[in-house]
Amino acid sequence: MIGVVIPACNEESLIGLCLDSIKQAALAPALQSEEVKIVVVSDDCSDATTRIARARGVDVVHSRARNVGLARSLGARRCLAAGARWLAFTDADTVVASDWLVAQLALGTDAVCGTVAVAAWDGYGSTMRERYAAGYRDADDHRHIHGANLGVSASAYRRAGGFARLATGEDVALVAALQAVGASIAWSARPRVVTSARRDFRAPDGFGATLLRVESETAVVE
User: Would you write out the chain's pLDDT as a tens digit for each of its 222 residues?
Assistant: First the structure.
């Protein structure tokens, strides 16, 4: 069985599209009907996130910590307890490709670090897209780490000790732990996801914060 974990904090406007894309990826013929368990970790949600997730028939775990590291850890724990051999992680503001899970598994490694594409640059300056692309490698052998596009075998996840309870950088910490235990990692652009460039991001130093830093550097140049 494959487990997919999505932490969510008040994501009612985006969680539906995310879950629909994962459910589509779970139907990929190459998976040969292997079960895919989807777990949404409702992290102190006060909106309709939980209702939307349950309406789509996915498992929901509750947390009140507002801590993405803990949220990913709780979701992984639920999947592992159900017998998952592989854990895939994404974010609630992200849409995955229909072959996302297939692409991760096909790489044959202990873990997969994928890239992300930005859905739209609305609200940013005219040169933002070019500035971002100039500093981002969306190709194999990159060294980007995104919680929105990350996969790891159950055995390697356990050896590495799982996600730390970090409010940000939990994905980077996990990959460092995987490297420390000698896990094989594919730095691949094959598993595709598209994420938002929203300004009301949740992680204080995550992808959204990175985009704001690029924007500020662009403003200085312009």
Answer: 999 999 999 999 999 999 999 999 999 999 999 999 999 999 999 999 999 999 999 999 999 999 999 999 999 999 999 999 999 999 999 999 999 999 999 999 999 999 999 988 877 776 778 888 888 999 999 999 999 999 999 999 999 999 999 999 999 999 999 999 999 999 999 999 999 877 565 666 666 556 656 556 654 444
* Long-range contacts of the stretch 123-132 (C-beta < 8 A, 24+): 123/197, 123/199, 124/197, 124/211, 124/215, 125/215, 125/218, 125/219, 125/222, 127/218, 127/221, 127/222, 128/214, 128/215, 128/218, 131/214, 131/217, 131/218, 131/221, 132/211, 132/214
Q: Which residues pair with 86 in a beta bridge?
A: 2, 153
- What's the rounded Cα separation, in Å, for the pair 111 and 155? 10
